[in-house]
Please model this.
Amino acid sequence: METLCFGQIQNKEEMILMEKLEQLYEGKAKKVFATDDPALYIVEYKDDATAFNGLKKGTIQGKGIINNQMSNRLMAYLEKQGVPTHYVEELSQRETLVKKVSIVPLEVIIRNISAGSFAKRYGVEEGIVFDQPTIEFSYKNDELGDPLLNRYHALALKLGTPEELDTIEKYAFKVNEVLKGFWKTCGVTLVDFKLEFGRLADGTIVLADEISPDTCRLWDSETHEKLDKDRFRRDMGGVEEAYAEIMKRLEEHLN
Ligand code: TMP
Ligand code: ASP
Model:
């Protein structure tokens, strides 16, 4: 019993008490705890940052707070636009109540502009604007270094059913359209991002994990300044400042 968190469940009127029970999982950036409701987990965001499959390690002061708040705000916005998510309720600066899911072991990456591993893999410069977004999947498996795979590989490995993969793809492109438009109003270009999806107990696919500067490339639309985790990955400095700037822009534009 580490923390008591008070929050208001949206579909009930009364204040509820949510208690973190045992820690179920600790990842690179978050911890997941059981609650006394078997259908709900509490996620706690850390300031720890890693890159290159954990080879590079560091801390980004205040990142856990920004990523928690940004992810929650964006997920609530996406819900309104018809994308179901795991988000239930923000409990504290770093803690959020989420629906229990079993994660589909796929990293779903959408790209609007060449950057990162795409630029490296295909030997092109960063910043080429695509006529239409690309989608790619990685097998979420740290030991194997999250290898790229296509739909047929995912089906062969039984990572999802054909219907689940269709749903995931449909939601991923929808998230792109919604977030590209939103970030544009903030003077920010959504270059690329990674999503993860989960299954609720009844099999419904929902957006899970997080949407944050850790998982998106976000460039200032005019200067192309990087306002995301690439500043940490590439030792560019100004990491905390970039996270604060992108959060400030979100707060100014998302009511
Ligand atoms: P990439 O260009 O390195 O493949 O990254 C594509 C996008 O996915 C980028 O916005 C950063 C995000 N990403 C993660 O969220 N987690 C990861 O482990 C990696 C490698 C990328
Ligand atoms: N999640 C990556 C890691 O394994 C970091 C990244 O975002 O590049 O450390």
Remarks:
- Residues 109, 115-118, 192-194, 214-217 surround thymidine-5'-phosphate (ligand 1) (CB under 6 Å).
